[in-house]
Amino acid sequence: MPSPQPDVTSAQTCSVLSNGIAMHLVEAGGGPPLVFIHGLGWDHQLWLPALDRYAGQYRTIAGDSRGHGRSDKPAGPYTMAQFTDAWAGALEQVAGEAACIVGLS
Question: Which DSSP state fits 17?
Fold first, then answer.
């Protein structure tokens, strides 16, 4: 039986245009930006427990990479440069400052 999704009650969602695609982002909290990037085949929901846990000290941000979750899914194949360019553009818009990046693959 899957575990229930955590309740990130303070989370806000948005969509930003970055390098030709709309990226879905979720953020909570305040403070220095702490960004969570999922691996191939996952989406932002992987990080919901972390957003909830760290939102008291950081502005936590997670999102769906190109072709994943609620972000645009243009025809592939995708390159690592496309993933990084999309994230860089999105973070420039929403964080606007240096951020600590947490990721997995």
Answer: E
Question: Could you report the per-residue pLDDT of 5-45, keeping only the tens digit for each?
Answer: 445 556 899 999 999 999 999 999 999 999 999 999 999 99
Nearest-CA neighbor of 25 among 97, 92, 98? Answer: 92
Domains of the chain: 12-103 (3.40.50.1820)
Is-above-0.70 flag for pTM? yes
59 vs 24, 27, 51, 68, CA distance in Å? 16, 7, 9, 22
The amino acid sitting at 102 is V
User: What element of type H or E holds 49?
Assistant: helix 48-54
Instruction: For residue 52, give the amino acid letter.
Output: D
Distance CA 62, CA 45 (A): 8
- CB-based burial label for 24 (10 Å; 0-12, 13-18, 19+): buried
